Amino acid sequence: MKPAARNRGKMDPEKTTLVPNQDTRPNLPTGKHWTKFEQRQWTVTLILGTAMLYSARTIMPVCITAIADERNWDKTESGTVLSSFFWGYTLTQFLGGYLSDRIGGERVLLVASGLWASVTFCTPFLIQLSDHKPTALYIIVVARVILGLCQGVHFPGATSILSRKVPEDRRSLIFSLIATGANCGQKFLTDSTLLLTFIFASPRLEYSWTDRGSSYSLGTDHYSKNAASSAPVPWLSLFTKIAFWSLLVANYCQNNAFYILLSWMPTFFHENFPDAKSWVFNVVPWLVIVPCNITGGWVADRMIKKGYTVTAVRKTLATVLFFGIAFFLALISYMETYTTTLLCMTCAVACCGFYSCCLAINPVDIAPQHAGAVFGIMNMTSALPGFIGVYMAGYILETTKSWGAVFNQTAAICILGWFVFILMGTGRRII
User: For residue 345, which phi and psi values (nearest 5 degrees)?
Assistant: First the structure.
């Protein structure tokens, strides 16, 4: 079906079928858009920053089996360590988005990167501070909470930047490209490069204080006080929108699957296939997710340019996201060989790559002037499964000894998230 011309009659923009885009709402950026050169410069910068951020975040799940053996932690204690990151990560989501909308995400990300890199550098030394099991566990939990606090501002800040600087028909691809940095950083970057690489890769920050700090320049891009949104967020209106709540539910369900895979997949393969090479199952799934990220973003932008509604595009790709994860996770229980199990796990992780082009970018669709704050709230609620879901997975494993129980309930939650978003989600501006 070819999309009709944009001005050919009115059509319901909330239909989930692939209909032409009649959404004529203004995008309302609060500052001038980047040039193509600036888009490339900042995209590369944010990819590198995201990669190093995830390198720091995921080193603990990769090492948790060895550390647990050394420290004599059971599954519940390991789950506590893994989930503690999200206790802090949840608390700074809204603050990071709000500050980014008010003073600029560029500033917020620069300061935060120095803080979480410092925590990461100190973590190996903190593990060795005490041989007393409860004390050592407490120290690591506190360090992981602080790491989460520092990293919680990253994606709200990046979302705020993109909402101001990138036009609507290019946001999906750029956001997806930035998300590929997470997958690369999970397996390919070393912690020793975290701080220096991010600072030197970032565009040069120059301050020209006038009128008590009313303006400053950021690299080649002039940034004025009016570039960030000075309008207050219409909280009452936002919290009465069913589309906003459906986004929160959908993000919770998707992130529940992602965080369980991220935190427990190495342990799953170590226990079920002890002779398998760890570099294979630690690298292959996250390697395959990269082309899915890029492809999803490219497809979303192409569909929008061809005239399909933003709502239809987001819901179509959300279907691929949720059903793909649920289907392959459910299949794992029936796999008997290492190769078929790895294939199913890889496909499940790969489907997570479509998250960036449908759910993660949705705050920019529904609240272009307040995307950072809205993303912060969304990511705060979607971080809850980081400590609830990850901890519960450890508890289920400890009590039932069944990986199938973990994967099946995760698949069921994915289907719930799809149903809610398809029924009530939107790609239209609501505030």
Answer: -65, -40
| DSSP bridge partners of 216 | 223
CA distance from start to end of the chain: 32
Let me know how long the chain is: 431
Residue 183: CB atoms within 10 Å: 26
Among the listed residues 193, 162, 201, the one whose alpha carbon sits nearest the alpha carbon of residue 31: 162
Distance (Å, whole) CA 114 – CA 112: 5
Residue 228 has pLDDT above 70, yes or no: no
CB 342 within 8 A of CB 284: yes
The DSSP code for 237 is H
Determine the Cα–Cα distance for residues 139 and 147; give it in Å rounded to an integer: 12
Under 8 Å between Cβ of 82 and 146: no
Nearest of 382, 353, 376, 352 to residue 364 by alpha carbon: 376
**SS3 letters for 182-208?**
HHHHHHHCCHHHHHHHHHHHCCCEECC
391: enclosing H helix or E strand: helix 384-400
Distance of CA 203 to the CA centre of its chain: 23
In sign, the C-alpha dihedral spanning 81, 84, 89, 95 is negative
Close Cβ partners of 95 (under 8 Å, ≥ 6 residues apart): 152, 153, 376
For position 188, what pLDDT does the model report?
A: 60
Coil, strand or helix: which one is 273? coil
pLDDT digits (tens, 9 = 90+) for 38-56: 888 888 989 888 888 888 8
Alpha-carbon span 75 to 286, nearest angstrom: 24
Range scoring the smallest mean pLDDT among 140-144, 178-182, 363-367: 178-182
pLDDT tens-digit readout, 284-327: 888 888 889 899 999 999 999 999 999 999 999 999 999 999 99
User: Within a 13 Å sphere around the CA of 95, how many CA atoms are in the beta-carbon half?
Assistant: 12
Residue 364 CA, chain-centre distance (Å), reads 14
Q: Which is it for strands 205-206 and 221-224: parallel, antiparallel or unpaired?
A: unpaired
Q: What is the rounded CA–CA span in Å between residue 145 and residue 100? A: 22
Residue environment code for 342-370, b if the CB has 16+ CB neighbours within 10 A, otherwise e? bbbbbbbbbbbbbbbbbbbbbbbbbbbbb
Give dist(CA 386, CA 102) in Å, integer. Answer: 28
